[in-house]
Amino acid sequence: MYMQLTTSEDGVVQFVKQPGAALGAGEVIGVLTLDDPSLVKHAKPFEGQLAACGPPQAYGTKTHQLLRRSLVLLTNALDGYDSPQPAAQLLQQISELLQRPELPFLEFNEVLSALHSRLPPQLTTALQAELAKAHEYSSGFPATELLAIVNSFIGEMSPSEAITLTATLQPINQVLGSYKHGLAAHERQTFTALLQRYYDAEAVFAKCANEEEGFFALREKHRTQPELIIDAMVSHAGVAAKNKIVLAMLDVIRPVNTQSGTLDAAYEEVLKGLAELSGRATAKVALKAREVLLQCQVPSLEERQRQMEHILRSSVSETVYGSGEEYRTPRYDAIKDLIVTNYYVFDVLQSFLHHENPYVRLAALEVYVRRAYHMYNLVDFDYSTEEDAPFMVHWRFILQDDSSGMFAGQVGANTSVSDLKRIMSVSDMDFAVDNDADPEQYLRQGAMAAFDTFERMEEHFERLCGLISGNTEASSRSESPALGMRPLGRFAPMSALTGDTKRGAASSRSPRYSHVLNVALQVPQDDPFDDDTWSERLQQFAASHAVDLRDNGIRRLTFVLQRAGQHPGTFTFRENTDYAEDMTIRHIEPGLAYQLELPRLANFDIRPCFSDNRQLHIYHG
Questions:
Q1: Going by DSSP bridges, is the β-strand pair 444-451/515-522 parallel, antiparallel, or unpaired?
Q2: Which residue has the higher pLDDT, 62 or 526?
C-alpha cells in the first residue's frame, strides 16, 4: 500500500522507519527539516491575565442557597479542611441567615417545585393556598398546617397509594418537620448538629492516650470502611482550627438564656458530651463547655427574684386573725439566709430597694447594709419609718481594727453600748492613755435610704443626715443578732485607703469624720446613665451639702444608682478630698472595697478597668 504525504513547506525528509516496516497508529515515520527554519512555530510562555473564574459549583443569591453554601464551608472546616472564609464570619452569616423569616418558605417552594409533576394536583393546590394565606396575613411559616394537609390527604387514599405518596413526600415532610417548632428551634437543631459533628470526630481520640491508639481504635471499628478512617484522621489533624470554630460557635449561639440564666435544653446533651472530652487537644473546648454548664447550676433570675421577694415580705409582715396582714420592721431571723448566703445577691436585691411596698424596701435596705458590712461589727440597727418620708435605716458599727483592741473577744450577741464601759479595763496601747474615754466615740455610724427621683433625694437629704446627728427620730433596736457570728480579727481599716492611719486618743480631741452615708437612687429607664455625667452631677450635689456633711462628721458619701436590667453603679465621695469621687473604688461597695488591699499599691498610679463581671476587679498601674 502506497500513501502520499504532502507538506505545506519545502524541506528535507529524514525517515525514521525502514521501508516495509509495519506502522502503528500515531507512530513517527520521519522528520521534515524546513529550508526556512523561521517558519517553525515555538511555544511561548503565557504572559497575559487569566479570566476571572467562578466557584466550582454555582450557588444562588437567595437566603436558602447562601445558607446551604455557608453550611457546606463550615462542615468542611469541621472535617479538617481549610475554609476560604474566616470561621467567625461564617458563623455570623449562618446565624443571621437562620433568623430570616423567608428561609422556610424558600426551602419549601424549592422542594415543592421539584416534586410538582409527581404530586396529585389537589394536594399541590391545597399546599399553595395555605402558603398564600400565610403570606397574606404575615403569620409566619405554617409548618403545622401544611403537615395537617399532607396527613389528611394521605389518610383518604388507599394503603398502596398512601405508601407510594409517603415515599414521594419524604423531602417535603423533612422540611416541614425541621420548621415545625419555629425558626428558633431550627437554628438550635442546626448548631447542635455541628457541635455533635465535632464531638463524634474527637470522642474516639479523647479516650486514647495518643493518636496511634486512636488510629487502631478506628481501624477496629471500621474494618470494612477505610474511607471513614481516612476522614476521621484528616478531621483530627485539624483539631486546633476546629477548636477555634467551636469556641466561636458557643459565643454566637449563647446556649444560656441571658434573661433567665437557664440552659437551653436543646444544647444540654451535646454540651455534656463536650465537657467530658479529655486530652490536651480538646481541653479548651471541654473547659468552655463546663463553664457554660456551671452557669446554669444557679437558679434563674426570675426564680431568685421570687425567692427573695418571699423572704423579704415574710420578714416584715404577719397575718393576724381578724385584722388581715400587718407590717412591722424586719425580723432578722427571716432575712438571715440572704445575709450569710454564698450566692451573689446585689444583682437581685437592687430591684427591691425601690419596691412599691415601703416595708419591703426597709427589709431590702437592711439586707444591703448587713451584707455590705459583714466584715464589720454592727452594734445596733435603727429604723426611721415616718409616713410622710421615705423609710431609712441607721446603724452603728466598729471597725475590725478598732474592735481588735478595746472590744476584742468581748462584744457578743447581746452587747449594748452601755455594756462597753465595763470592757474599758482591757489593756490596749491605743486606749491606755484615756481610760475614762466614752466608748461611743469609737463607734462609727451609718445611714441609708432609697429614693425614686433625684428631686426626692434633695428634699429628704437633710433628714438622712439627721440620723447621724440624732436630729431625726428612729425606732432603735439596741441588740444586734449579727454579732458573735464571726470571730474577730485584725483587718486594714477603710482609713487605709486614704492614708489616714493615725488613730488614738488624740483623735477624740480633734474633729473626726468617721461616719458614712449611703444613698440608693433610681435612675429613669430613658436616662443615658453615662458614668462621667452622673459623677459630675453627684459631685456637685455633694459639694453643695459639704457643710452639712462635715457638721455631721460624714467621712464617706456613697451613691448607688439603680436601673432595671443593669448592674448598680456605685460612686463614692470622700471628705479628705473635699468630697471628690474616689475613682479607685468606682462601682465597688466601699464596705467591701478595703478587702482589695489597695494600700499595697500606694506607690502606683492605679486606674480601674471595668468589665461586665462586677465581681472581677481589674486595675491598670
A1: parallel
A2: 62
pTM beyond 0.70, yes or no: no
Contacts of 576 (CB under 8 A, 6+ apart): 498, 500, 513, 555
Which element (helix H / strand E) includes 314? Answer: helix 301-316
Q: In whole angstroms, what is the distance from residue 320 CA to residue 611 CA?
A: 48
**Helix (H, G, I), strand (E, B), or coil: what is residue 270?**
helix
Which pLDDT score is estimated for 40? Answer: 84
Characterize the bridge pairing of strands 392-398 and 444-451.
antiparallel
Residue 83 backbone dihedrals phi, psi, to 5 degrees: -110, 135
Q: Strand, helix or coil at 327?
A: strand
Q: Integer distance in angstroms from the first to the last C-alpha of the chain?
A: 101
Residue the block writes with cell 479529655: 278
d(CA 396, CA 403): 13
Please give the DSSP secondary-structure letter assigned to residue 350: G
Determine the pLDDT at residue 422: 38
Short-list 239, 254, 258, 238, CA closest to 288: 254
Mean pLDDT to the nearest integer, 195-202: 91
Tens-place pLDDT, residues 353-370: 989 999 999 999 999 999
Q: How far apart are CA 242 and CA 151, in angstroms?
A: 42
Question: In which element (H, E) is residue 447 found?
Answer: strand 444-451
Sign of CA dihedral 43, 47, 49, 54: positive
d(CA 579, CA 544): 10
* DSSP per position, 77-92: HHTT---SS-HHHHHH
- pLDDT tens for 503-537 read 343 334 344 788 999 999 998 877 766 788 889 99
Residues 108, 175: contact at Cβ < 8 Å? yes
Give the span between the Cα atoms of 47 and 24, in whole angstroms: 38
Helix (H) or strand (E) holding 619: strand 618-620
Phi, psi of 562 (to 5 degrees): -115, 135
Question: Taking phi first (over 0 means left), then psi (-120 to 50 degrees means alpha), and beta for anything else, what does residue 386 get?
Answer: beta
Please give the C-alpha separations between residue 108 and each of 72, 133, 153, 165, 319, in angstroms, as whole numbers: 20, 15, 18, 17, 61
d(C-alpha 513, C-alpha 77), whole Å: 65
| Distances, alpha carbon 339 to alpha carbons 307, 369, 530, in Å | 14, 9, 31
Q: Give the ranges where 317-404 is alpha helix by DSSP (H).
A: 332-340, 346-349, 358-372, 400-403
Of 380, 510, 526, the closest CA to residue 447 belongs to 380
